[in-house]
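Usage

Read records sequentially. Each one opens with the input sequence:
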Amino acid sequence: MKNIGIAQIFRDIADILEIKGANRFRIRAYQRAAQNIESLTEDIAVFIDKDRLTDIPGIGKDLSERIREFVSTGKIRIYEDLKRSIPEGLLDLLKIPSVGPKTAKLLYEKLKIKNIADLKNAISKNKLEGIFGIKEKTVENILKGIEILERGKERMTLGQAVLVGEEFINTLKKTPAVKKISTAGSLRRQKETVRDIDLLVISDKPQKVMSSFIKIPSVKDILAEGRTKSSVRTKDDVQVDCRVVLDKSFGAALLYFTGSKNFNIKLRQIAIKKGLKLNEYGLFRNNKFVCGKTEEDMFKTLRLPYIEPELREDTGEIELAQKDKLPKLIGIKDLNGDLHAHSDWSDGGNTIEEMADAARKLGYSYIAITDHSQSLKVANGLSLADLKKKKQEIEKINKKLKTFRVLYGTEVDIDSKGQIDYKDEILKEFDIVVAAIHTGFKQSREQLTGRIIKACTNKYVHIIAHPTGRLWGIRDAYDIDLEEILKVAKDTNTHLEINAFPNRLDLNDLNCHRAKEIGVKLAIDTDAHTTEQLREIKLGIAVARRGWLAKEDVINTLSLEELLQAIKK
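and closes with the structure output:
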């Protein structure tokens, strides 16, 4: 969780610097560092211990010192000084989607608004309208932004929940009294957002487990402490519950505390029809213990095949299980490559060769380097001259590789009329073309849908990236007719993406399931901007599994030769 803390501080520093009109390159340096730190799959302390902080893209000597200061003291002096230089609470305004540093500064200077409560009060009294640059639509967007922010506080993203769960599990595993440990609840079902963390432990010394649990360094408050169950709240306001069960009941408890409420009700009904009683302690017949050690034992006794945790939502999986027709869900080892990744040619933090090397270490046989196209200036989009040089570099790298291929790709921009910002004669040179909307998010449903459909009909566009455009806690999904888009995608052999970036997870599980029903093949990609972010593919796999996807539903499970043949239009 130190990673998240440092990343947030760096983002806050960037925001304060922007309010104060500081150098934009300095602002961008903090923003880039925040993004790269947040995407690390290892604790930042590991990089400090191994003296590898400067290996993280965007982290130089100055930022290294700030990170070391935070890890050792819990604070960064320059951040504390900067916070004192602006009104207290002003930073909270910047957490509202659609309220940027300039707007926050304007609201303070004109109306002395310095926190969200002040802003809500001013809006209720119609004080914002008439201020330079603030129109009725702007006020509507601010209100919607407050709603998104407050909704985001109630739950954390799957990526954040995974980090919290791993921190607690890795710490408790060091306790000798812990024989086995697992997550349960919505985290084990891999829901895209999670309210709290549930942990299950096997131990015959529960009090020692509880003692270790409540003393984990990130714990802020002890909400409840018992012999076999305790609850804590972390310094990031995440509730974590831990239960200790006996070995013979671990499977029963895991089943009971993983499934959704409706899933559990239906399982209990099945048990009753078989003359059994099901609870968190096991399956019983006439109060006599039948089984409970493993989930497999529980399902077998209920005469059901094993139902994967991600499916346990009572959306038809039990009925399919009874007919022995459950899909064999895709796994991370089924993937052969990543089809959406960036390098330092545009806004990435690593070279093409470094990205390729990291992909090889993940067991892939290919990676598409899809740097941004020319119109996206904010992301250093590539000019035609840059494309030639990049292609030459990829060809040079590929000559050195024997069992791996770097695909020459691009992430092109779909403009306000659905046009692509490279001409067809340029597009046809790419191995992979990923198209995405990056501007004009507030267009009408018809306009946004039309833009994506037009991109699908382009014979050189293979994948639509992050199709609904949502960013958790920042921006809701676009208002699009996804059903119509899926139909056109099917007709044009265009593939839609499951973007595994933690704040996106777009398409979501329900949309994945619908795409499967219509027959649209999907791509699971990371949109990685650093080598570390390639590991976030596990979040995309989680979405795909919740969407009932099998290996054959995803194009980057294909071999290189099969892939290049399959994407032809």
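Summary fields computed downstream for this record:
- The first strand starts at residue 156 and ends at 157.
- The mean pLDDT is 92.
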